[in-house]
Batch of 2 targets.
Target 1
Amino acid sequence: MSLISLEDVTVAYDNKINILEKFNLNVEKGKLISLLGPSGCGKTTTLRLIAGFLEAKAGKFTFKDKNYTNIPVYRRNFGFVFQNYALFPHLNVFENVAFGLKQRKVPKSEIRKRVPEMLELVDLNGFEDRFVTELSGGQRQRVAIARALVINPDLLLFDEPLSNLDANLRIAMRVEIRRIQQELGITSIYVSHDQEECFSISDEVAIMNKGVIEQLDSPSVIYKYPKTEFVARFIGFTNFIDFEVESSENGKLLLNSNHSKFRALKTNDVKVNKSYKGVIRPESIKMKSYIENEKQSENSIKGSIKISTFLGGLHQYVVNTELGEITVNSDREPPYDAGENVILSLPEDKLVLVEKG
Amino acid sequence: MKNERNYLLTLMTFLVYFFLLGPLLIIIVVSFGPDRYLAFPPNGFSLKWYSNIFEVSMFMTTFKISITIALLGNFIALLLGLPAAYALSRYNFRFKNTLNAIFISPILIPGIVLGFTLLKFLIISYNIPMFTGLLIGHIILMIPYIVRVISSSLANLDFSIEEAAMSLGANRFKTFFIIVLPNIHSGIIAGVLLSFLESFNTVDVSLFLSGPGISTLPIQMLNYVEYNFDPTIAAMSVLLMVFTVIFMFVIERTLGLTFFTKSR
Ligand SMILES: Nc1ncnc2c1ncn2[C@@H]1O[C@H](COP(=O)(O)OP(=O)(O)O)[C@@H](O)[C@H]1O
Ligand SMILES: [Mg+2]
């Protein structure tokens, strides 16, 4: 049984359009799961619903087998970490972190013990007397994390916690967040629009699009085997080729596109005689120079270089083929010239069929 | 070229201060004159007009009424204005702009109109006691200042700290008192002070809402100069100036004048 379960939840601001409609999500205890998707797809809405800042129009939220749908936010015991930190400007670091404990009427002596412990955990010992305005962005977010953790929350919610920090700090902080989360074994939901950030720290990632989870899997599965065209595009697949499935046997697919035959592994639930998008990453395609009269191997196609751009260490090429334009990365030196004829081969384990989106 | 502009600037500054402070200086000097009329320069030195203030009993009576109205009215205006300012800044609802306009309108409506309307409806039509009528008039005058100043303080407040407090276990009501209020206290103090001064100085609204035994200090001063030409009013003005300076000095000492401009 999952720790968290959202069942057929519908949310609308001002009762107009439904931002989430019959939305479902289950999270296991101790896991860190990310909600990833473009801006405006409903990640924050989902998170705020779980936190209790928002009320659902319909549906049910169960936490630890208890119906939490109507439990107000201040009784939920969930920690929330905001993008803009939301520290209390009139309190110092110690008082900020102590706030939740005070609300719980924890004795003073214990507060004096636990606050420094938390500050130690986020590497901020000695900062007790500082005011929020005297801290850097990274330090502020550490205080915010300590403040959310000190209450021993049943669930930790992050809404783009690193978006206001600069790139280097973002990487250091996400490692930190993952370390703390695993050290305490605390179930967490993490919202971000940054793919790398989500993939690097999550046990599972839910890719959201327009209020719907298109795929929920481990980062490595999503990276290799997207299920929908949207997911593929979002995580960096650049090539989208129309294919029809001719046959499916023993986990292998025979595909047909523009009278050329291709093979692919069956990673998703696909049906024979239906058409799909075959997606492949530019770095997965192998490219070599075209040689006249050479026998063409399986899963390969002839093309000519149209555009070449330098990416630092390798080149990215747009290649004209019978299947349309295909983007390929190659580190061959010297680079291919524009107009040069090439052979592209698409490894069958890298070519993934997804639902057309 | 640069020097020229400096001369001009000095001259302008001098003129501004001259016109601002000149009349005040004259009043101060005149208030110490011994004659029964306003003479500048005075023909001697005397404190009798200062003692005269305390001999005219209506000055003391109306001073007390003015202070009572300003303090009591301020308190009620704050009780009404603070929640209004909060709701207007925090929530989106229908007729929000209309409501905003209504709260600000007393500043825009001429005091004479407001005073006359209140006289007509409160005192004549509904027979409300004069003191209550005066109090209501002043509350109406003060609310826009309270709402405006507190609203600008709330505009600088990031309301996600409310959510943070609630997620940490404080309910909505408690959050308002321990999170919102401490972060807008300078706005509240500024609003209270501004509206206090507005109430204490106002003439037009009070003019219609005063009658036998009920009047404010500015109205009493007005009445006095209608029949007397001696420097008592000058002496009174000097006392009020001293009062204001002490007032500002205490604020400066306790809060710092910068708190009027500070955002936190
Ligand atoms: N307070 C609000 N009132 C009305 N609409 C909102 C509000 N907050 C968000 N929305 C709308 O809900 C949708 C989802 O928003 P959000 O959950 O914030 O997206 P994300 O966090 O994925 O960027 C957007 O279309 C946004 O315009
Ligand atoms: Mg968001």
Note: The pocket of adenosine-5'-diphosphate (ligand 1) is lined by residues A 13, 19, 37, 39-45 (CB under 6 Å).
Target 2
Amino acid sequence: MFSITEYLTDEHRECDELYAKVERLVSEERWQEAVKAFGEFRDETLRHFQKEEDVLFPEFEGRTGIVMGPTQVMRMEHAQARELISRMGEALEKKDKRAFLSVGETFMILIQQHNMKEEQILYPMCDQHLDAPEVVQKMEAL
Amino acid sequence: MRGLSLLQAPPFIIVSGFFISASLFWFFGSLLELCSYLKDLWSLPLYVHISTIGFALFVMFGALFQMLPVVAGAVIKEPKRKAIISWLLLLLGFSLFTTGFYLKNYSLIMVGSSLLLAGVLFTAFLFLYHLLKLKSFTPTSRGFKFALAFVLSGAVAGFLIALSYGNYTPYSPWLLHLHMVLMLFGWVFLLIASVSFQVVEMFFVARPYPRLYAMNFPYFFTPALLLALYDSIYTRVPLLALVLSHVLLTLHRLYTSRRGFADKSIYFWYLAFLNLLVSIPFFLFKESFLYQFLLSFGLFFTILITGMSLRIISFLVWFHLSNEGAKQVPLMSEVIGEKLIKACFFLSLLLTISLHTLSFHRMYLLPVVIHIILSGTLSLSIIKGSLLYFRLSPLYNAS
Ligand SMILES: [Fe+2]
Ligand SMILES: [Fe+2]
């Protein structure tokens, strides 16, 4: 059975791979394939956010009593990421390569520094305080 | 909401303050290089410290104020006040220190190095104090602890050298070797290597470094470094073998990065690590190639820092403005444009080529001129980007 850290870190890397694929297709202006790949990337990323917001963060807050701490910062960064993802979608519709890559660049740095915080700080704390197999199962079930 | 995000991200002014000073020191330092070249005032310690302290140390300390909460979860309370103390000590120390070397005035060198020592001790202990309380889950935060311990001891060694200039302590060439190895390998290289373990995999979507290798890197590295403190060609081999392994792993990861060249900072990483590769044989035979070693190793970290600081500033401007709910939030490419980034890269490439070809003939005028243009362009980019933040931030503009 996975630890929470392993399970969610793997998802981070998967989302990165999916993003890299969209980015490559957009820079080669293969729009049709890019739209499809973007859909996969967006769905995967949003699902990951949902697992955290609907399962992990409430479990963490309930167990530790820390409500206005790291989880709140993470939620805020998810909101920022969602906004950038929807701007990427708009750029893709307009086949605007420059705009897409430019939003994507900012998104990528935002999400990586976000992931770093989760992987170094939040996930290990969750593994420490929560029943990992149970939480992973709940996230899987979403 | 605003207070919350600041809980984790220290105010922008800390990073921008350190970065602006760093790039300006590098720029004014390059002008000083030109003056001393034209007047035939050769001073190796002056040239070396313009890049190592004036540029690298300022950027690295500034970046650590930002990175400690992100990569290690170490939150420094009241970061502004502490950063100002650190910045002032280093700023005064560095200015007096370089002026002292330029004018060959011993008292200035002495006061300057005392202040520098105080600045390094204060800052490195501050970081270590926060880091040591936490368990490291990533190679990056573990590597930081070791690198900070080395910069502390390297600074003490440097101070002892300054004392020996005034005959307060006996001078020994070994002390210089100790200072150089601790600072360049123990501090600069180890810090960059520790950052690379996460940055390369995550930002470039590349293969991770082997987990055991990355997590235990400081444990292999420290004995090799200590061995190399005994100054002989053989004792350098283990240290250089580790550096080589890291260079090859990094270049391979950059080459197989899933993002290709989409992130422009990858060009800086390539160029920097190629320079590091070149510096390895020069250090092995440093008895004959000390200048070549210093030049190529200097190119390694200055180019990497140039590329990274352009990214960090433009991201932080976006990030803080977005957190603060500013009306206008420019994307990274709107903070520092692609043209400036390309110019910085092109100039770094020219600097590399000119130094590697001309330094053997002791022809330094052209590299110095390129250095002036590069550091000027970098300063312009960082200042322009930072000003944009202060113009748009609601914290600085009461509406
Ligand atoms: Fe998250
Ligand atoms: Fe996550």
Note: Confidence is low (pLDDT under 50) at residues 1-7 of chain B.
